[in-house]
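hey can u check if this looks right to u? its 172 residues, i copy pasted from the old doc so theres a chance i mangled smth
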Amino acid sequence: MSAPRELGFEALDGELRRSTEAHGDRLLAHARRDADTRVEQARREADALVERARREGEAAAAEQTAYAWAIVRREAAATVLVAKQKMVDELRSRVRTAVLALRDEPDYADIMDGLAAHARARLGPSALVVRDPPGLGGVMAELEGRRVDDTLVALADRAFDAIAESLQERWP
């Protein structure tokens, strides 16, 4: 009697093992499919993150490049303006020097007479006229708080400013 019983348990034990192994195989297959799905999803998410980071990096780099170029352009423009101003200042200085050299010309007295007559014509015949003020040349005149500055330096500056303004409009 003991032999058939053992045979029944063995058969049951074998069936349970097969059933358990089959169930384990199904669970393992399901776990593998689930793991593969999760790994694939993680890869897609990682790829999307990498792509987003690349785009953001490119955008940031483009923004930084644009900002850097803007700084370079401003610095270049400032450099050009400084150079132009130095050129204008140097030219103004040369014009003043050349105009003041008129004081050494033989007809300088005639020039001052003409400037004095011009100042009196503007202010009136009783205007106080200062001839050849030091370092300025030409004349200065005043009457009743009104003033005429026809010094050589002032005349040169007014003429230079008019010319420089038209030149500035033509400079790029």
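The chain has a mean pLDDT of 88.
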